[in-house]
Amino acid sequence: MWVDRLAREIGALGQAENATPERALDQMSAAAARAVPGCSAALVVIWRDVGADSAPAAGRHVVVDYGASHPDLATAFEHQYTTDEGPTVEAVRDMRPVAVGDVLRENRWPNYTSMAVQCGDRSSVTFPSELEGEVVTFGVHAVRPDSFDEAVVTPVVALLAEHAASALHSADRYTDVAREAAHMRRAITVRAVIDQAKGIIMHARGCDAAEAFEELRRVAQRNRLKVADVARSLVAEHAQHADTGGSR
């Protein structure tokens, strides 16, 4: 059965000699996008619980790392994380599966609807699974509404999430110091970096935050990059320019 084959494939991704969480996440999302009927793209996210008072987004959780099989889905997720609205952040916040028949019929995430439609995230099923003090969310997404039978697909995604958590535990061979560095380097700082980049654009163009984020998104889509990567490049370029100007 295809479900068993896919679960085994995902479970084996952490066993490879060169396996890392980053590589495994990308491969898991690609495998699910290929194999799950009706799925246009898949998203696998590792979250860390940092306490209710200190998390910058997603309630008590921050992103450690993630893999998206399509850049548009990465853009949509980064918008979820920045605004703290959407099916993935709700799944990890409430620790329960979240299904979306058609995002245009939803009223749970008003700030996410427009971005979801632009990025082709019309329907989805997301399931959270615990991972050694962290959480893995596994989501299958489709460009068409009502692409998934919730009763059929939710158990499938639950199985994939469990195998993903097991594989990621095997793939996680960082030392504590290197792991903390990876956390800081990657999406744990997504919101702060994007906010900083938006501030730079707002100051330069005299626009509001929504327009600034839309510009980041356009650049990311045009170059097939994640919004966070575009934001980091802009912030780094701005800092370098400031340093150069200040030394004159």
Automatic annotation (TrEMBL):
Database matches in InterPro entries: ANTAR (IPR005561), CheY-like_superfamily (IPR011006), GAF-like_dom_sf (IPR029016), GAF_ANTAR (IPR012074), WH-like_DNA-bd_sf (IPR036388)
GO molecular function: RNA binding
Transmembrane segments: none
Record Pfam families: ANTAR (PF03861)
Superkingdom to which the source organism belongs: Bacteria
Domain ANTAR: 174-235
PROSITE patterns in UniProt: ANTAR
Gene3D superfamilies cross-referenced by the UniProt entry: 3.30.450.40, Winged helix-like DNA-binding domain superfamily/Winged helix DNA-binding domain
Keyword entries, A-Z: Transcription, Transcription regulation
Protein name per UniProt: GAF and ANTAR domain-containing protein
Annotated organism of origin: Streptomonospora mangrovi
